[in-house]
């Protein structure tokens, strides 16, 4: 999925809100970094989100957008509505869906 396709999808998911393209690009970059850090915890030369995780990236963007103005909120009760956010910016339930890649330990003498 291209960046433009992701932006279009996000606009559809966030409707009737109308975030700017710049806001959506920022969200995509933040979530891209989170996904790549989770997928490749020891670093990588890969800079694109693997295709299998693109829809999780969109879900992460929606979660971050919906927290806008209430970042870091741990509890909130008002008129019978209660809100509590998971630790961190991106919900752990989404991050847990990303399988980390691991390699073997290489012998430096070989």
In short:
The chain is mainly alpha-helical and 110 residues long. Helices cover 44% and strands 5% of the residues.
Written as H for each helix and E for each strand, in order along the chain, the element string is HHHEEH
User: Cα-atom Rg, whole angstroms?
Assistant: 17 Å
Helix content: 40-55%
Query: What count of helical segments does DSSP give?
Result: 4
| Biggest beta sheet summary | 2 strands, antiparallel
How many β strands by DSSP?
A: 2
Distance between the termini: 40 Å
Give the uncertain stretches in residue-range form. none
Q: What is the percentage of strand-forming residues? A: 5-15%
The average pLDDT is 87
Structural class: mainly alpha
Q: For the largest beta sheet, what order do the strands appear in spatially?
A: 1-2
Gross morphology: flat
Any key phrases for this structure?
single chain, 110 residues, mainly alpha, two-stranded antiparallel ribbon, 4 helices, flat
Report on this model:
This protein is mainly alpha-helical and 110 residues long. The protein contains four helices and two strands. It has helices spanning 3-14, 21-39, 54-66, 92-95; strands at 76-78, 81-83. Strands 1-2 form a two-stranded antiparallel ribbon. Strand 1 (76-78) and strand 2 (81-83) form a beta hairpin.
């Amino acid at each position: 999925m291209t960046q433009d396709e992701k932006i279009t999808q996000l606009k559809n998911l966030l409707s009737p809100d109308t975030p700017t393209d710049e806001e959506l690009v920022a969200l995509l970059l933040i979530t891209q970094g989170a996904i790549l850090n989770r997928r490749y915890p020891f670093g990588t030369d890969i800079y694109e989100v693997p295709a299998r995780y693109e829809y999780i990236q969109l879900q992460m963007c929606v979660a971050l957008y919906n927290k806008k103005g209430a970042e870091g909120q741990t509890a909130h009760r008002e008129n019978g509505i209660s809100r509590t956010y998971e630790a961190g910016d991106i919900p752990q339930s989404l991050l847990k869906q990303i399988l980390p890649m691991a390699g073997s330990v290489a012998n430096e003498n070989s």
